[in-house]
Every structure is written in structure tokens, then in C-alpha cells.
Design brief:
This protein has 334 residues and is an alpha+beta fold. The chain contains nine helices and 14 strands. The longest helix has 19 residues.
Length: 334
């Protein structure tokens, strides 16, 4: 935590994790909390008072370089493209005899929302408007078809279980690690949903027909932006395009509650571009301290003909994983 005059002006939580590289060597990796495991986070930059962004970034970089000694690789992910941390690490490169490299860009789809649904529809192509209208009418023609939102705390757990079930069904056989599988992941998001609902920020929507939920959307509102986190639909009803129909309803609801932005979060997928076209980027940064690990990553990169070191096949050594307890910075540099 960075403080100025006793007031917190920045927070950047990191933890230390030990991996096995090449099945032999242990790599002590410093990472932002939220990265690793079965999570796929977005926007993992530091929290800061905008007035002090660069001072806070310099303080964090200085502290990690000079006061945190037990890491070999600093692996920052999903930083905003204009993050002061990226600039500060680049400026400090002359102090590091190891190496600093940027990693793969992640693209995030988003869109600005107009004041009303009709104007949003007019912004789509004629073919897209017709397709959406036809699919919505087809769904609405089903028995007891309805779009709904979860408003009560007592409804969250059953809705969450249905979302997780449909998501796993949808991705069964298509990926080895679908979301909503580990007890830790399930427990975290269940608790988070209850907390967000209490703050008025949870957006948990669904489609129902014949008294059965066939699709669900899980997101949250922050300020005037609605964030799409996860969704799921019952594969048995694929012919009704439930995921696409639900997303259109959600966008209409967001416009109705005066949201001005809709953020689809990480993943440049075609189904997201059906609704929005704007793109922003997040970047990664790896800092290697000098030594054997740095040398091995550099050799691997050269052999691969790639200037950006690629991550070796790592195996998490759970017995060696620990959280850093020391603060990252006590005060911003002046």
C-alpha cells in the first residue's frame, strides 16, 4: 500500500508463488492477486488516486526492486495499455541486469450505449436487426417465455447453481478446464454475488420457458458501465439461440437503467462482436532477475525465434506457494 501524509493513495496486492519449470527448477514468481489458478481476470493494474498515479507507480517499482528480495520473475498481467506501471518499469530497465519484456496483448470488446433501445438497434446492420428480431420473436412464441432478473438474496444460490450447470454443459468436451468447477471458484462467486446484490451492483438475468431456466447472464454494474462476466445456456435449446437472445435483452435492460457503456471483458470472440465493435487492450509485463532462470527463458525465446519469452510448462508446487505479507510501498516517491 502506498501512503502520502498518512492517507492511502495506492494499492497493488501481490503474492509469491513457486512453480516448477522444466520439471526440475523452482521459479519464484511474483504475481498480482487474482492471477493464476482457474481465474481469467481483467484489468489487474493497481488501484490509485489519479492525482498521484505516477508517484504511486514509481514507489511500487522501487519497493519491489529494492525491498522484495525473494522473487525471480515478476509476472504482471492484464494491465491497462496506458498504465503508469508499464512506463515506470521501462524507465527502471537500466537498473536491472536481467530483462524486461512485454507479453501478449489481450483485446476487450466494449461499446458505448445510446439513450434508448431503438437507437441501439438502428446502429446495427439491417441484416443484424432482422436476425435479432426474428430470434427474439421465436423465443417469445414459446410457452411461458420470459426474461427475468434476480432481485432477492434468497434466489441467488439456486440461480447460481443453474448458471454453473449450464456453463459446464455448454463446454463439456470442448475444454479441459471450464469455469465453475472447483469448490474455491464456486464459493468465491457465490459469495461475491450476495455481496454485489447487497450493494445494488449484481446483474443476474435469465431466460425461462415452460418454467425452466434455459439461459443466464452474470455481470455487474460499476458506475455507468455494465460488465459482462459470464453466461451459460442449455445446449438442448440451441435452436432458439438463447445466449444471443438473452444478450440482446440484457443490453436493452442496461440502456433502460441509463448505463452509457457495456464492457464485454477479455476475449475477442465473434459472438461479442455481434453486439459491439469497439476494442481496448490490456498488456502483460515480465521482469526477470539475473540468474539461471532469466538465462533459460532467454535461451528458450531465442530457440523459438521469438523475442518475447514464452512461459514454460509449469507445475504449481502447492507446498511452496505462499502469500506475501509485507506491504509493497509505504509512501510514494516525490
Amino acid at each position: 500500500m502506498a501512503r502520502l501524509g498518512g492517507r492511502a493513495v495506492g494499492i497493488f496486492p501481490l503474492y509469491l508463488e513457486t512453480h516448477r519449470a522444466y520439471k526440475i527448477l523452482r521459479v519464484r514468481k511474483l504475481r498480482p492477486i487474482g492471477a493464476g489458478g482457474d481465474t481469467a481476470p481483467d484489468d489487474l493494474g493497481m488501484l490509485f488516486d489519479p492525482v498521484h498515479e505516477h508517484a504511486v507507480a514509481r514507489a511500487f517499482v522501487d519497493h519491489v526492486l529494492n525491498h522484495v528480495h525473494d522473487w525471480q520473475l515478476l509476472d504482471l498481467v492484464d494491465l491497462p495499455a496506458d498504465s503508469a506501471l508499464l512506463a515506470c518499469w521501462t524507465q527502471q530497465s537500466t537498473q536491472i541486469s536481467g530483462s524486461i519484456v512485454r507479453t501478449t496483448v489481450n483485446r476487450i470488446i466494449f461499446g458505448d450505449l445510446p439513450p434508448d433501445w431503438d437507437r441501439y438497434r438502428q446502429g446495427l446492420s439491417r441484416n443484424r436487426r432482422e436476425v435479432l428480431g426474428r430470434k427474439r420473436r421465436k423465443f417469445e412464441a414459446q410457452p411461458d417465455a420470459r426474461f427475468f432478473q434476480i432481485h432477492q438474496d434468497a434466489q441467488i444460490d439456486s440461480a447460481f447453481e443453474r448458471l454453473a450447470e449450464m456453463h459446464r454443459q455448454r463446454w463439456q468436451g470442448r475444454t479441459e478446464e471450464p469455469s465453475f468447477t472447483s469448490p474455491q471458484y464456486l464459493g468465491f462467486h457465490r459469495a461475491l454475488m450476495h455481496a454485489l446484490l447487497a450493494q445494488g451492483r449484481l446483474r443476474l438475468y435469465g431466460l425461462q420457458m415452460n418454467a425452466q431456466t434455459i439461459a443466464m447472464f452474470y455481470g455487474f454494474r460499476n458506475g455507468a458501465t455494465l460488465y459482462y462476466f459470464q453466461a451459460g445456456f442449455d445446449p438442448k435449446h440451441l435452436a432458439l439461440s438463447p445466449g444471443e437472445v438473452l444478450m440482446a435483452y440484457v443490453i436493452e435492460a442496461a440502456i433502460g437503467e441509463k448505463c452509457t457503456h457495456f464492457d464485454m471483458l477479455k476475449g475477442d470472440y465473434g459472438h461479442k462482436r455481434h453486439f459491439f465493435q469497439q476494442t481496448r487492450e490490456t498488456l502483460g509485463l515480465r521482469v526477470y532477475r539475473p540468474g539461471l532462470i532469466c538465462w533459460l527463458y532467454q535461451v528458450k525465446a531465442r530457440l523459438a525465434g521469438n523475442r518475447v519469452p514464452a512461459e514454460p510448462a509449469d507445475h504449481i508446487d502447492a507446498a511452496q506457494t505462499k502469500l506475501t505479507a509485507s506491504p509493497i510501498a509505504e509512501s510514494p516517491t516525490q
